[in-house]
Design goal:
By secondary structure, the protein is mainly alpha-helical. Among the domains are: 55 residues; 74 residues, no CATH class; 76 residues, Serine Threonine Protein Phosphatase 5, Tetratricopeptide repeat (Alpha Horseshoe), CATH 1.25.40. 74% of the residues lie in helices and 0% in strands. The chain has 21 helices and no strands. The N terminus is likely disordered. InterPro entries: TPR-like_helical_dom_sf (IPR011990). This is Tetratricopeptide repeat protein. It comes from Cystobacter fuscus.
Length: 353
């Protein structure tokens, strides 16, 4: 290594600069850096992925690479909790997706909007879609299936659990043809079942999951789905262990915050409000503050149970600020006596099934 460095020291610096500039102008290097960006993101190295996007955005990339770069950049912003930047990017992606019928960008924008609590904006992409709803190419058909699958989350976050279940059921045959989608299908199903009082059915659904094939990015969500299912059947200690396992697998900041709220809900259901309060407060104070309406609502309920009614009302008001489009916001408004403040969402959720 010392001899190699000594050899390079005799090379004129100007020549080294020319060599570096030539490499950065070479398309194979662009592809390599873009692949490296995706690799970093998929392994949870979000800051490294974001740093690479900042290098790539200054290079003369081929036109087809630009949308991929945008998606990697905005996904990294969202994963790190930079919600405003992610939403700004999502709005630009939505315009591009509709104009150019770009399904991967439509799917990315939908995910970013949902992570920011903008469920209606996510559904609006589907309603305004001008591309084919049954794309002929296999890759496009898969992307369209992912769009519809991810919108299930938007619908149940609006509070329309049965509409979400209907949407998911409509996707079942399509999902069977895609290994990734079919393996994650029971996770989404279990989450819905657990939140509609069908915990045993939810656990049965999760028995179909091949946990080894779940992407690292989403393993925490699968564990949280199992924790919610166990909570629904009052198996509190098992639910708590599962939620903690999910937090150990969490890569995104949103997953860590969601795990804290879930642990709070488990403790509250078990009749341990003081313990629950610690989890709820940690979740509410977490740097990631997108979505989370159900957790904030439960925090308020916990405070009310402890007789701290003024603080409970503040927690419920926070739902209206941080997750104002959610079904939880409707329930928070009801607790605050603000009837009719949140309306019309269920009709929006049912549209476009």
């Amino acid at each position: 290594m010392t001899l190699a460095i000594a050899g390079l020291a005799r090379v004129p610096p100007e020549l080294l600069l020319v060599l570096v500039a030539w490499l950065l102008l070479w398309p194979p290097v662009h592809r390599l850096l873009l692949h490296l960006t995706t690799w970093c993101f998929n392994r949870g190295a979000f800051r490294a992925a974001l740093a690479l996007t900042r290098v790539l955005e200054h290079l003369p990339l081929a036109a087809w690479m630009r949308p991929i770069l945008w998606r990697e950049e905005f996904y990294a912003h969202s994963a790190l909790g930079y919600t405003e930047k992610a939403v700004s990017g999502a709005r630009n992606l939505a315009v591009h997706a509709k104009a150019d019928a770009c399904l991967p960008c439509a799917n990315c924008a939908i995910n970013l909007f949902i992570n920011a609590g903008l469920y209606l904006e996510a559904l609006d992409i589907e309603r305004g879609w001008q591309g084919p709803s049954h794309p002929p190419e296999p890759s496009a058909a898969r992307e369209w299936a992912l769009v519809r699958f991810n919108l299930v989350e938007a619908v149940y976050n609006l509070g329309s659990w049965e509409a979400a279940n209907a949407r998911l059921s409509n996707l079942e045959e399509t999902a069977r043809g895609d290994a990734f989608l079919w393996n994650f299908f029971p996770v989404q199903r279990a989450w819905i079942l657990a939140h509609t009082g069908r915990g045993e059915d939810a656990l049965s659904a999760l028995a179909q999951v091949d946990w080894r094939r779940l992407p690292r990015m989403y393993r925490s969500e699968a564990h949280f789905a199992r924790a919610a299912s166990l909570l629904a059947v009052h198996r509190y200690e098992e639910a708590r262990r599962e939620a903690r396992t999910g937090m150990k697998h969490a890569l995104r900041v949103s997953s860590t915050r969601n795990g804290l709220f879930l642990l709070g809900r488990i403790s509250l259901a078990e009749g341990l409000p003081e313990e629950a309060l610690r989890f709820f407060e940690a979740g509410a104070m977490h740097p990631y503050q997108g979505q989370g309406g159900d957790g904030l609502l439960a925090w308020g309920d916990c405070l009310a149970e402890l007789g701290r009614h003024d603080e409970a009302r503040e927690a419920w008001r926070l739902v209206l600020t941080r997750d104002k489009q959610s079904g939880a916001a409707s329930r928070a408004a009801s607790r605050l006596g603000l009837h009719g403040l949140v309306s019309g969402k269920e009709g929006d959720a049912d549209a476009g099934k």
